[in-house]
Specification:
three-stranded antiparallel beta sheet; alpha/beta; 12 helices; seven-stranded mixed beta sheet; 372 residues; single chain
């Protein structure tokens, strides 16, 4: 094989990431990630793991003992949630209102679940009455919902759902990939049994980790399994020993990624989680008002819009891909296109973590005005 030419030093375009994720990271986070690596069983690193757990409990608003960062992106968190509590033949009811509901269906099916679904058009969510009827009809062991559907920009309300699940002896599993850190989320108050997110959106850290939390009810179901967890890497029986006492080696954790997550969580502690939620909401409303002035229409009804991810209908006669390509080429601003049923119909604009700032909103609106 011919030796390749010598690569030049790596340079990255100065992108402003205002798509569905990742978001730009705060310089403090990048600085933390550049610190020297240490061993994944080093006493200092183990202490930091304990700190990360405490910080995550605050952001998740939970007292769950098993609250950790999984070494893998948000999809690993999704897989971990299903792998640990789904046994072959379990009835798993999944609410599908977008692309990531379908991904839950796919994963649950691979673990042998008897999957049942309820569906809403892409841009709508489920009412409590609809969920109640579905639980009574299907009698599932697990109900899976996407709290923040990244493909549509819809927020699925969770108030009262946990109570329904307890009435029907059912676990509540929630995808919070595009909500954690940017959208109010009360794990314990809402009775959520399993939830997962990612590091690169509302937390404003680079991609690579999946914050995860598991209730005592979910842990009890795991302990009553008659079959082994099919996924060794994500088996919480094993991971709980690495994140608990006494420490037991499981895998080589990405220590520098966890440095970054620790700093991202510290920034949220400084701001206060409720202030963080409010900042995301205020900047989203600034965006929505600016889009309206440009004559653009949001895809989702205002009361159910995500403050972290806004879907904007592409005007008739406009080539949506050309607009997003021009924004990237001429302004270094990334926005996303539609997924699945909304492909070619919407733009997806993210305001997450460090990027949820008014100056970014105004910059994007001015660029859009010029392009359109």
């Amino acid at each position: 094989m011919t030796k390749p030419s010598q690569p030049q030093p790596l340079t990255i375009p100065p992108r402003l990431l205002m798509g569905p994720g990742p978001s730009n990271a705060n310089p403090r986070i990048l600085s933390a990630m550049s610190l020297p690596a240490i061993g994944h069983l080093d006493p200092f690193y183990l202490e930091m793991m304990d700190e990360i757990q405490d910080l995550l409990r605050y952001v998740w608003q939970t007292e769950n003992k098993l609250t950790i960062s999984i070494s893998g992106t948000g999809s690993a968190g999704m897989e971990a949630s299903l792998a640990n509590v789904v046994e072959p033949g379990d009835v798993v009811l999944i609410g599908v209102m977008g692309y990531f509901g379908h991904r839950l269906v796919d994963m649950a099916t691979r673990y042998g679940a008897n999957v049942k679904t309820i569906s809403k058009p892409w841009g709508e969510n489920f009412s409590l009455a609809e969920l109640k009827d579905a639980l009574e009809t299907h009698k599932p062991a697990i109900l899976g919902l996407v709290n923040a559907e990244t493909s549509t920009g819809v927020r699925q309300p969770l108030e009262g759902v946990g109570e329904l699940c307890r009435e029907h002896n059912c676990l509540l599993l929630v995808d919070a990939v595009t909500s954690l850190g940017g959208v109010p989320f009360y794990t314990d108050q809402w009775g959520v049994d399993l939830a997962y997110s990612c590091s690169q959106k509302g937390l404003g850290c680079p991609p690579g980790l999946s914050p995860f939390t598991m209730s005592d009810r979910a842990w009890e179901k795991l302990q009553k399994r008659t079959t082994s967890v099919s996924n060794w890497y994500l088996d919480m029986n094993l991971l709980s020993q690495y994140w608990g006492e006494p420490r037991k080696y499981h895998h080589t954790a990405p220590c520098n990624m966890n440095y970054g997550l620790r700093e991202a969580l510290a920034l949220i502690i400084e701001e206060g989680i409720k202030n963080c939620w409010q900042r995301h909401q205020q900047n989203a409303e600034l965006l929505w008002e600016g889009l309206e002035k440009l004559g653009l229409v949001c895809h989702v009804e205002r009361q159910f819009r995500l403050p972290t991810l806004t879907t904007v209908r592409i005007p008739e006669g406009v080539n949506g891909k050309s607009v997003s390509s021009y924004l990237l080429k001429e302004y270094n601003i990334e926005i996303g296109g539609g997924l699945g049923e909304l492909a070619g119909k919407v733009w997806r604009i993210g305001l997450m973590g460090y990027n949820s700032r008014p100056e970014n909103v105004l910059l994007l609106l001015e660029a859009l005005r010029k392009v359109l």
